[in-house]
Design a protein that fits this description.
Layout (H helix, E strand, L loop, with lengths): L1 E6 L2 E4 L10 E5 L3 E5 L9 H13 L3 E2 L7 E2 L2 E13 L6 E12 L10 H25 L12 H5 L1 H4 L18 H14 L10 E2 L3 H13 L5
Antiparallel strand pairs: 1-2, 1-7, 3-4, 5-6, 7-8, 8-9
């Protein structure tokens, strides 16, 4: 798994020391968009994964705002990579399936305040939301000629699932308070557009050459050891 945050359009690895250079987004012809320089930790069970996630959460950028004492000022992206081998009956070879679970905690939608630094952070957050909303609108309109994934680091990380090869679930958090009416409406409209996306998944499977394997197994069975 890997765990990064996007703060003011700058990537930060939440699983490595702060003195390391920030990760960079690169396009791999086989793996798609990858986080070059980010730590990829191998975990054997849920407990090891939760320990890393807890450590990463403590390193997230949090600041006090007009409405929250501890407010996340960044988008956090947790990626869990899976490699699954299905054992086929009566044949000694495997097909390998590859999967990736991406969990994204988006920063809260808040109005700008009188604080200049807070305005800069909120502006960066809103820019990411606008870029994500623009990509979603074009996907809903089935305009696949050009989708501006490169307008934001957040949309670049989410390019693969947004492009169609994935299943997407969005949880929108809203407030019943009248003082949060604008933010609630923005969030609901954003979620309403997102649920209109049509996603068509495909299996990421690398199949073993079954004909060659069967011939190999047949030759082994015909071989007789020396007496």
């Amino acid at each position: 798994l890997s765990y990064v945050e996007v703060y003011n359009e700058i990537l930060k690895d939440l699983l490595s020391d702060s003195n390391k250079p920030p990760p960079e987004l690169r396009m791999d012809p086989n793996k798609g968009v990858v986080l070059q320089g980010a730590e990829n930790k191998t975990v054997l069970n849920e407990e090891e994964a939760f320990k890393l996630i807890t450590m990463g959460n403590k390193r997230r950028t949090e600041k006090q705002t007009d409405r929250n004492k501890f407010s996340s000022r960044s988008h956090a992206v947790l990626q869990i990579y899976l490699e699954i081998q299905d054992q086929l009956s009566n044949v000694n070879y495997n097909d390998t399936s590859f999967g990736k679970l991406i969990l994204v905690d988006l920063a809260g939608s808040e109005k700008t305040s009188s604080n200049t630094k807070s305005n800069s952070e909120t502006g960066s957050i809103n820019q990411s939301f606008l870029a994500l909303g623009k990509c979603i609108n074009l996907i809903v309109a089935q305009n696949k000629k050009f989708i501006p994934f490169r307008e934001s680091n957040l949309t670049r990380i989410l390019q693969e699932p947004l492009s169609g090869n994935g299943r997407i679930v969005m949880i929108a958090t809203v407030s019943p308070a009248i003082t949060n009416f604008d933010e609630t409406m923005f969030t609901l409209q954003f979620a309403n557009r997102a649920k209109s996306m049509k996603i068509h998944m495909k299996r990421n499977v690398v199949e073993t050459d079954k004909v060659l394997v069967k011939k190999y197994i047949s030759r082994i069975r015909q071989w007789q050891p020396f007496s």
